[in-house]
Amino acid sequence: MPRDRSAAETATAGELAYRRIRSDIVVGRLEPGRKLTLERMREAYGTSVNTLREHLSRLASEGLIVAEGSRGFHVTGISASNLREVAAMRELLEGHALRLAFERGDIEWEGGVVAAHHKLASIEQQMAAGRHLDPEEWRHYDWAFHAALIAACGSTVLLETHAAIRDKYLRYQMIAAIYRGRAASEEHLALRDAALARDWRRAQRVLSAHIGDCVAQMVDELPAHAAAR
After folding, report:
1. Digit-coded pLDDT (tens) for 96-142
2. Which of 65, 78, 129, 217 could in theory staple to 32 by disulfide, Cβ–Cβ 3.0 to 4.6 A?
3. Are residues 104 and 214 in the same domain?
4. Contact residues for 24 (Cβ-Cβ < 8 A; gap 6+)
């Protein structure tokens, strides 16, 4: 039994390290293009070099890390063209999920949408009033609202695929640090109202404008060498 418990604890510690690395990539603490040195990462994430190699290979399969054979690993770079591809995939997946959720959602789903929007609107009001917030806090509530909108879609595969694309999109949001102020707040309110009215067509139109305007501003804010690609 002690051996079994030790193995479980090791697996849990390894999974936590993987999640920390992944989170650090998504929110930009490990910036695009950064060379990942295994010895330094071993100290930072408290895990073995062999486990780190497994984690980085796993992240490479997700497109967040580039494996260079004997030369090691680096964080996947960014470009305007990749941002547009990721955004188009997000719109496709989220738009489809919106329709399914609006058709299938019950009163509990509606309550989740309203609650998530209330929290996001509160954060946005504080930002509009000039309060400085950690971008991670704002993004947490932003994505929680979008997740609530599609939670009733009824497809685990769709939700998992959307979450993977969401994280790639989030990388760009964190790098560009885009907050569009009143325009974004009004779009979020329109999405909430469309959900309560079960008007998925309107929601898809709002989502398309929401993503399109955000991408346009993010491209302007990307580093010059990335935006030109």
Report:
1. 999 999 999 999 999 999 999 999 999 999 888 887 777 778 888 99
2. 78
3. yes
4. 30
135 and 46 share one domain:
no
Instruction: Give the domain range for residue 121.
Output: 80-227
> Rounded CA gap, 57 and 181, in Å?
38
User: How many domains does the chain divide into?
Assistant: 2
Residue with tokens 């309203």: 114
Q: What is the pTM of this model?
A: 0.83
Torsion over CA: 24, 29, 32, 33 (sign): negative
Q: Are residues 107 and 14 in the same domain?
A: no
pLDDT digits (tens, 9 = 90+) for 185-218: 999 999 999 999 999 999 999 999 999 999 998 8
